Amino acid sequence: MEHGHEIGSHPLAHFAGLTFNMDTLIMTWITMAIVIVLAIAATRRIELRPRGWQNFLEMAVVYLLEQVETNMGPKGQKLAPLIITLFLFLVVGNELGLVPGFTSPTNDINTTLGLALMIVAIVHVLGIKNKGFTRYIKHFFEPYIPFVVINIIEEVAKPITLSFRLFGNILAGEILLLVLGMLVPYFVPTLWLAFSVFVGIVQAFIFTMLSISYLSNSMQDGH
Amino acid sequence: MVELNGTLLAQIVNFLLLVVILAKFAYKPLMQGLADRQQKIADAIDTAERDRREAEQLKLEYKQHLVEARAKAQAIVETAEKLAEENKEEILKSARAESAHILQKAQEEVMRERELALAQLRSEVVAMSMAAATKIVKEKMDTELNASIVSDFIEKLDEQKIGGMPC
């Protein structure tokens, strides 16, 4: 149970003046490798009648594509690979921590905040691109000028809530799994493990859907 | 425990890398496959709809054909019945005519036979009465007269070709 004491503290590496959490990076690469292998295996030969893994992946992807289409319209199609990749990465990353000996890359605030900041950055870039710079700035002062405070708080809150929700859920899940394993072995941790599988999928889904929702706001031409 | 550092940047780079890789190697074939499937399903539905319409058309046609055929059959049966009736009448008429003809012929035949028989009978009666008369008057006639009468008689017999009678 040495592993349990390591959660939250990371072995560090220094490179080019920056500090990196090596365990998070390694788990991220493992997650990426798994996602790539699964995605390519599932799409290498698209069959007319989907079977097995392809069927499952397609179900998720088609659902996400529908969400992208209904929320963002035809312009959002360009972002579809990003959304789908986000969901696959988060699902695999969340579930990876449930495998003994592995941790989730999403149990590090650097991962979740990084993803959230990236999404928010895309939101603002697209907002400027779609609405024009003046209208983009103007929409912070709507409906009345004093609302600028609330609007800016909202914009700042977006990446923070997005990243902390995922980070907290996954880290807490892993910590609780280890704690339960030490307190009441076998049965209760197994139940929690099963629930964590569910939580991992749900959190990935929430993160993805909120990202779609934020992105769709900036895709609209109105206001 | 919660500490931001260079990992954040690395994770963004990692994720964007993953997006690029997936977009290139998985997203395109997936979309192609989905599009193909959609096309195929649309085609299948179209074909099914077309087939269904065709089948309906055919069914309608067949129904019409059936009605026509039935009407035709009815007409044929009616014609045949009428023809048979006519034939029957004709046959009966000709049969009646034939029978009447045969009857008439038979009656004529009978009449002729009767006439013939009567004539024969008459001539035979004449011959017999002549023969009887000859026998009766034989005693009282001279030979000469007798001979003439006899020869007369014989001649008459020859004339009338009534033979088989002993003289």
In total, the number of domains of chain B comes to 1
| Averaged pLDDT of chain B | 85
**Termini of chain A, distance in Å?**
55 Å
Query: How large is the share of residues in beta strands of chain A?
Result: under 5%
- Secondary-structure element series of chain A: EEHHHHHHH
Give the helix tally of chain A.
Answer: 7
Task: Calculate the mean pLDDT score of chain A and round it.
Answer: 82
Radius of gyration over C-alpha positions of chain A, nearest whole angstrom: 20 Å
Number of domains of chain A: 1
Number of strands of chain B: 0
C-alpha geometry of chain B: rod-shaped
**Backbone CA Rg of chain B:** 62 Å
List the strand order in the largest sheet of chain A.
Answer: 1-2
Low-confidence stretches of chain A: 1-5
Order of helices and strands of chain B: HH
Tell me the β content of chain B: under 5%
Shape of chain A: globular
Walkthrough of the structure:
The complex is a heterodimer of chains A (223) and B (167). With 223 residues, chain A is mainly alpha-helical. Chain A has one domain. Chain A contains seven helices and two strands; from the N terminus they run E-E-H-H-H-H-H-H-H. Chain A has a two-stranded antiparallel ribbon with strand order 1-2. In chain A, strand 1 and strand 2 (18-21) form a beta hairpin. In chain A, helix 2 runs parallel beside helix 7. In chain A, 38% of the residues are buried. Chain B has helices at residues 7-138, 143-160. Chain B has one domain (14-160). The mean pLDDT of chain B is 85. With 167 residues, chain B is mainly alpha-helical. Chain A: It is found in: Cell membrane; Membrane. Chain A: This is ATP synthase subunit a. Chain A: GO terms for molecular function: proton-transporting ATP synthase activity, rotational mechanism. Chain A: It comes from Pelosinus fermentans JBW45.
